[in-house]
UniProtKB/TrEMBL annotation:
It comes from Faecalicatena contorta. The gene is miaB. The lineage of its organism: Bacteria, Bacillati, Bacillota, Clostridia, Lachnospirales. The keyword tRNA processing applies. [4Fe-4S] cluster 2 binds at C208, C212, C215. Keywords: 4Fe-4S, Cytoplasm, Iron, Iron-sulfur, Metal-binding, S-adenosyl-L-methionine, Transferase, tRNA processing. Residues 427-490 form the TRAM domain. It catalyses: N(6)-dimethylallyladenosine(37) in tRNA + (sulfur carrier)-SH + AH2 + 2 S-adenosyl-L-methionine = 2-methylsulfanyl-N(6)-dimethylallyladenosine(37) in tRNA + (sulfur carrier)-H + 5'-deoxyadenosine + L-methionine + A + S-adenosyl-L-homocysteine + 2 H(+). Gene3D superfamilies: Methylthiotransferase, N-terminal domain (3.40.50.12160), tm_1862 like domain (3.80.30.20). SMART domains: Elp3. This is tRNA-2-methylthio-N(6)-dimethylallyladenosine synthase. Catalyzes the methylthiolation of N6-(dimethylallyl)adenosine (i(6)A), leading to the formation of 2-methylthio-N6-(dimethylallyl)adenosine (ms(2)i(6)A) at position 37 in tRNAs that read codons beginning with uridine. HAMAP family: tRNA_metthiotr_MiaB. Its EC number is 2.8.4.3. Belongs to the methylthiotransferase family. MiaB subfamily. Residues 53-171 form the MTTase N-terminal domain.
Amino acid sequence: MIDRTKNEEFEKILEMIDITKPAPAEEPQRQYYFIAKAREYVAEKVREAGRPLTFCVTTFGCQMNARDSEKLTGILEQIGYQEEADEEKADFVIYNTCTVRENANQRVYGRIGQLNRVKRQNPHMLVGLCGCMMQETAVVEKLKKSYRFVDLIFGTHNIYKFAELIVTRMESERMVIDIWKDTDKIVEDLPSERKFSFKSGVNIMFGCNNFCSYCIVPYVRGRERSRSPKDIIREIEELVSDGVVEIMLLGQNVNSYGKTLDVPMSFAELLQEIEKIEGLERIRFMTSHPKDLSDELIEVMGNSKKICKHLHLPFQSGSTRILDQMNRRYTKEHYLGLVDKIRAAVPDISLTTDIIVGFPGETEEDFLETLDVVRKVRYDSAFTFIYSKRTGTPAAAMEEQTPEAVVKDRFNRLLSEVQKISSEVCSVYANTVQGVLVEGVNDHDGSLMTGRMSNNLLVHFPGDESLIGKIIDVELKECKGFYYIGEMVKK
Ligand code: 5AD
Ligand code: SF4
């Protein structure tokens, strides 16, 4: 996916397209054709309205969705819409949804309901829904029945077709629904717009084959497929030449990257290739599955100058019995062994994790095993989740769902332990000097800049906007629990 939004070369390609002819069949040329066509339609609407048309994309969920939203934004800007932060004022509203937990779905329904009111005041407004939630048949049925004002519904596999779907909607004036069950198709070289000028997510693979028994992702994101290393490297090189210094390699299970390629390649090998890119300073990746974390990867992390000192390694439960029920395919001991190995290779690594509480049949003993892992590993931070029953997953059919009050109590005990440990762990960097990638002006205090250390901790320090996008040495003066206040080191 190349950042082509402001690219003259791309403009030339679009100018050559004759939209009076039928659309080409091959990609990405087909989408270039629809971008050119949608541009004409939008220009006409702009003339009619006598003002620019605007859009607002709202992202729910994970980093994958955030990256997909950048692709949607790239296409909307290409066809002539301008960004508008206030959703109620926008002419085109998109919700890029998440369905990993039930409460995420409820939030989206609530928001769509409110849009109905806004659309009554602005009937020309377009509403598009996409992302994981749309891959669930029951959701689409409900939308078709009770949310008729929605204009466009598409899923996770056909995001690249966004321009084509917009054209279909503009030509038909009817609700357009395009959901694919699965695909192995990866379309390269479409426009995308980055949220930050200096850092970017880069998809290296899509989908997941793990089928953890609680998780809906394999059903809504489809089978695992990896992008070719050539395309990934080319994208990163272009990002770097455009000012990017930090990339986040994205996949549901990056450790199994490359298994499905014609010429298989390991994730560790890919990292070594990426490390060679001149001008790139930091490499992050997410998410790692413990069962696939190889010795080769640990060694590469230990030797690397660019891979950030941070590993997100979800363990989900400390009980080997529950891990087995979750189909995670590792034991508590294996996980703790991995932590020892990675700490031996990268002593100052920051470890973060995901934990689920209240999986069906979880006993107090199982939960104490989870607390034991938290105490042994001492995470820099942890995302804690209450188990959410997802229809269609094997765990949803398991009996013995744990009573809500018991789950809430365990969740609170876990959270307070996680927070206590993470504030202790965070404080060890006080009075050290760390490289900080400056991300922007502090939200609450305009005299402070905010940036991130290699281990992902936030640092606020006095400075100005000229520092944005640079890696600056900062002395960490005071730990405030989960972030630092620092001072720039004078050269
Ligand atoms: N209930 C609660 N948490 C879940 N996760 C995934 N599925 C569920 C579920 N059904 C959590 C896992 C995963 C993170 C992204 O979301 O911890 O690592
Ligand atoms: Fe879900 Fe497990 Fe795949 Fe992660 S590895 S996306 S938890 S099925």
